[in-house]
Write a structure and sequence with these properties.
757 residues; alpha+beta; 6-stranded antiparallel sheet; disordered C terminus; Alpha-Beta Plaits; Beta-Lactamase
Length: 757
């Protein structure tokens, strides 16, 4: 049976309704899909976080027919708009923010809130937004957490509500927007971290480094407050800050253990490690307290690593700068600072002048030789302390080198003021020092000069003060002299000689003369002493008392000493080939600088043997003033075992250290000419010579009297028991040819070596 049309109508209507509903659903699904695809395409585009938010809000306003689409951040119970489509850029919502309505307040708890019509409270659309006639709104948290501070908000002027499908799409977009922004911000932060690392690395001083670091830290973490605390052994110190109140700032420094801030959602702390030790702490906070982004701690840790490296580099630079400008022994400025300071002082326009004092210690070498280098260093440190007490804080005190100090005096008007300061310094130093448990006494020879702005130069002032110092030293220890033209000429001559000496050997300006050493009992020659002579093409014959110290100062003495030993051995080898002179000996002076090195003994023996001599043919003369280290003792012992003989030169002129006679294989004592010249005069010199000869006899040593110039002196030392002598009375130093001729006319007693005793 066919159903009637009346029975079919309800079914058709039902189908039509279902079709209509399906069509609407399909249309809505298509619309939602289209919306989502469009939004996802925007979210997938490469853009900065700010551009991404702006583009997303523009599309949201279009696809949801919203008058206003914005992202807002809660600060102190107000909604501060951080991105918006639909409001002018100068709207106060971007600066002062908007009152927090009930809809936004509920959404901050992590719920999506949608209101329209009568359910929309006027407080939900405050300020300029309310003047748009808003009738519908939705608030979507940007974070699924139970507490959030960022909302996505859409406002409509129509009564059309936001449907569940709208809310579903908006929730998905909000989550994706937050993830996309986080990802881009993370990439931006990584880039900024790299840039910030370079910015930190450019600082070479801690204070500007920490000041910029705290500002960068605040920007990186989007914090309201940021501060950096450094830790030492007892205290924590606030070194840089942004946003802290004056009350908090005044509470620093704090004892260790009281520097931590209470933990909470609005405070983060990260340590700065250096050599696996916490050297500083980074703090950031938000007011009112609210959580930071999830990766903020990781960002701060990376930043802390950059800061740790930058602080290490700054400290290394400070150390290098200090080494470059500070004397490591005394902590005074070094010579590199002097010229710079003088140059700056001489550039100042002033009616006053610049004074310079050049101080050289008298007697320092004796202390250094007698007590050792460590005692010498201690003495220099004590001298530096006394000088600091004398000079003003505005003056520059520097160690020029060795036992030389310089004082630059600002604001003086005349040379007499410079001299007066010099005298006060000399008086301060002219007192006993206790070094290594012993009392020692040194003085200072001081030269002064006055510099004038605009005309004087640092090099000229140093040269002139040095010249004046040498004039003072020539007058005796502890003297002060100010610069004059004569001193300038002497200074120039000395500098010229110092430079020329480096080339004297290559230019054949050095030569050896030989002075015979006689047996006073027989009048026969037993040995020669090799004496170095320097003939300069302009200065003529330069005294050994002048150029030997220069050679020791410049280090040229090592090469020159090696040449002297070689030439003396060659000459003795020639004389040994003369009839009857095979037993002749040669005395050669050696400097302490020649005794430094691990193979010195082997090299010395090598020179002797290459010329065909025996080690016993050579006497090595060591000056008593020399600092004789323990390795020198080993050197001497090795050579003595091979047959080389040792003489102690100038015996009695320095601190007579009898320990040298015990430590070294000495066979000969040479009585200094200053005592020999006085044996016919005051009883004191005669007693000293008698004592020296008695010491030599008791130890089984020989004595040589130096500087015998009169027959009376020869008779006196011979009567005292001295068997050997040399001096102008017997023979002056002779060139090789004249010495050879002397040997040809002088016939020894026999062909065997005469005992030196």
């Amino acid at each position: 049976m066919t159903p009637s049309s009346d029975e079919a109508d309800p079914t058709v209507a039902q189908l039509q309704e279902q079709l209509a509903a399906a069509t609407v659903s399909a249309r809505e699904a298509f619309r939602d899909t289209t919306r989502l695809i469009r939004l996802l395409s925007v979210l997938g585009e490469p853009a900065s976080p700010e551009t991404l938010v702006d583009q997303t809000l523009t599309v949201l306003s279009e696809v949801f027919y919203a008058d206003v689409a914005c992202v807002a951040h809660v600060i102190a119970d107000r909604l501060v708009v951080t991105g918006c489509c639909g409001l002018p850029e100068d709207d106060q919502a971007f600066t002062r923010g908007l009152p927090l309505g009930s809809g936004a307040a509920q959404a901050l708890a992590g719920h999506v809130v949608a209101r329209n019509g009568g359910l929309l409270d006027p407080a939900d659309a405050p300020g300029s937004i309310g003047r748009l006639g808003i009738r519908s709104a939705v608030w979507v948290p940007l974070s699924p957490q139970s507490y959030t501070s960022n909302l996505l908000i859409l406002y409509r002027s129509s009564d059309e509500p936001f449907t569940p499908s709208d809310i579903q799409v908006l929730t998905s977009v909000a989550v994706r927007l937050r993830l996309a922004v986080d990802e881009r911000e993370r990439s931006a932060v990584v880039e900024r971290l790299a840039r910030y690392g370079h910015r930190l690395a450019r600082h070479l001083a801690p204070e500007p480094l920490l000041d910029e670091a705290v500002e960068l830290l605040r920007k990186l973490t989007a914090a309201d407050q940021a501060w950096i605390v450094t830790l030492d052994e007892t205290q924590a110190r606030l070194r840089a800050q942004r946003g802290l109140s004056s009350e908090v700032i005044s509470s620093w420094p704090r004892p260790l253990g009281e520097h931590d801030e209470p933990a909470g959602p609005g405070v983060l702390r990260v340590p700065v490690l250096r050599d696996e030790t916490i050297s500083a702490l980074l703090f950031v906070s938000r007011q009112p307290p609210r959580p930071f982004a999830r990766d903020t701690w990781e960002i701060m840790t990376i930043f802390a690593n950059y800061l740790g490296v930058a602080l290490t580099n700054a400290e290394l630079y400070r150390t290098l700068e200090e080494r470059a400008t500070r004397d490591s022994l005394t902590s005074l400025a070094n010579r590199s600072v002097i010229a710079a300071h003088l140059e700056q002082a001489l550039l100042q326009r002033s009616t006053s002048h610049v004074g310079l004092l050049f101080c050289d210690l008298d007697g320092f070498k004796s202390v250094n030789d007698r007590l050792g280098h460590e005692a010498g260093d201690e003495l220099l440190q004590q001298v530096a302390v006394r000088l600091r007490r004398r000079v003003r804080p505005t003056d520059l005190l520097a160690r020029f080198g060795g036992d030389e100090f310089v004082v630059v005096i600002d604001g003086v008007t005349q040379l007499a003021e410079v001299a007066e300061v010099g005298r006060r310094i000399a008086d301060d130093l002219n007192d006993v020092f206790v070094v290594s448990g012993e009392q020692v006494h040194v003085t200072a020879s001081i030269g002064g000069v006055l510099g004038t702005q605009g005309t004087s130069t640092p090099s000229a002032m140093l040269r002139d003060a040095d010249a004046a110092m040498y004039v003072a030293k020539g007058r005796g220890p502890g003297q002060v002299e100010v610069f004059d033209d004569a001193a300038s000429h002497r200074s120039l001559d000395r500098l010229d000689l110092r430079s020329e000496l480096r080339h004297a050997l290559d230019r054949d300006q050095l030569a050896l003369h030989y002075q015979p050493i006689f047996s006073l009992n027989t009048g026969r020659i037993l040995a020669f002493e090799a004496l170095l002579r320097w003939t300069h093409p302009h200065h003529g014959s330069v005294s050994p008392d002048v150029f030997i110290p220069l050679a020791e100062d410049t280090g040229a003495i090592v090469e020159i000493g090696r040449w002297v030993l070689d030439q003396a051995c060659r000459q003795l080898a020639i004389w040994h080939r003369l009839p009857h002179w095979r037993t002749l000996a040669m005395a050669v002076n050696i400097s302490p600088a020649q005794l430094r090195g691990t193979k010195v003994a082997e090299e010395t023996l090598g020179v002797i043997r290459r010329t065909g001599l025996e080690p016993s043919d050579i006497w090595l003369e060591i000056t008593e003033h020399s600092y004789l280290r323990h390795d020198v003792t080993e050197y001497a012992t090795t050579l003595r075992a091979a047959g080389v003989r040792f003489a102690l030169d100038d015996f009695g002129t320095a601190y007579s250290n009898l320990a040298y006679l015990k430590r070294l294989p000495i066979e000969i004592l040479k009585i200094d000419r200053s005592f020999v010249s006085g044996v016919t005069g005051p009883e004191l010199d005669l007693s000293i010579v008698r004592a020296i000869i008695a010491i030599a006899d008791s130890l089984g040593l020989s004595c040589i009297a130096e500087g015998i110039e009169t027959e009376e002196q020869r008779v006196a030392v011979q009567e005292l028991g001295c068997r050997l002598g040399q001096g102008f009375l017997l023979s002056p130093p002779l060139p090789p040819e004249e010495a050879t001729e002397l040997l040809r006319t002088e016939y020894p007693l026999d062909a065997v070596r005469v005992p030196i005793r």
